[in-house]
Amino acid sequence: MKRWMMTVFVLTLAVIISACTGEEEGQGSENQEDRTEQGQEEGADGGTTDTDGEQNSATEEEEKLVSLGGDDGTVVATATLTEADTGVTIKLEGSDLPEGKHGFHIHENAECEQSDFESAGGHFNPTEASHGFDNPDGPHAGDLPNIEVNEDGTVDEEVTAEMVTLNKGEDNSLYSNGGTSLMIHAEEDDYETDPAGDAGDRIACGTIEE
């Protein structure tokens, strides 16, 4: 009788131990899944992680800073160029400029020799179009909207060059053939007259180079 009771006790104990072990293994599996999900979420916050555990960093938007100098070499404006979905965004900030509207263009050479800046060449025009937004055969890729300088000589404007890119090696890249330049003119661009919209003298220039 005692032997029979002992056998039952041993079998019962074995069943209990087996059940406990299975429960612990299930909890371990759940904990592992939780850790896996947590790791994936952390990867999404701190940079995506692929199935091999390699970290993929986000592509940084390309940006270029250009300083524009006047005819005496003094910096009168800075332009921040940023690659965008619609072309290149140009944010211009400056001071000590003549009040009023001024032609603002991208020129074909990365040269700004004082004091007339003629070394910058003509407008950036890889498609050989005519000048001006209002010209049926235009515009140049380097044509930009006029900027307006405030009464105190400051300017803070943002324009978009829709026909160019900062990506090297692509068509209409601003780094083509050694680079290009930004130019501010003395007068307003009429958006029509070849070759430069009758915008007058070149009063500030800055190069766009790699």
Report the uncertain regions: 24-33, 35-60
| Structural class by secondary-structure content | alpha+beta
CATH architecture call of the largest domain: Sandwich
Percent in helix:
10-25%
**What is the CATH superfamily classification of the largest domain?**
Superoxide dismutase, copper/zinc binding domain
Distance between the termini: 96 Å
Main beta-sheet annotation? 4 strands, antiparallel
Q: What is the CATH topology assignment of the largest domain?
A: Immunoglobulin-like
Signal peptide: 1-19
Domain Superoxide dismutase copper/zinc binding: 77-208
Protein name: Superoxide dismutase [Cu-Zn]
EC number: 1.15.1.1
Structural summary, described in words:
21% of the residues lie in helices and 28% in strands. It is an alpha+beta fold and 210 residues long. It folds into two domains: 2-56, no CATH class; 63-208, Immunoglobulin-like (Sandwich), CATH 2.60.40.200. Strands 3-4-5-9 form a four-stranded antiparallel sheet, with no helix packed on it. Strand 1 and strand 2 (55-56) form a beta hairpin. The radius of gyration is 33 Å and the shape is globular. The N and C termini lie far apart (96 Å). Residues 24-33 and 35-60 have low confidence and may be disordered. GO terms for molecular function: superoxide dismutase activity.
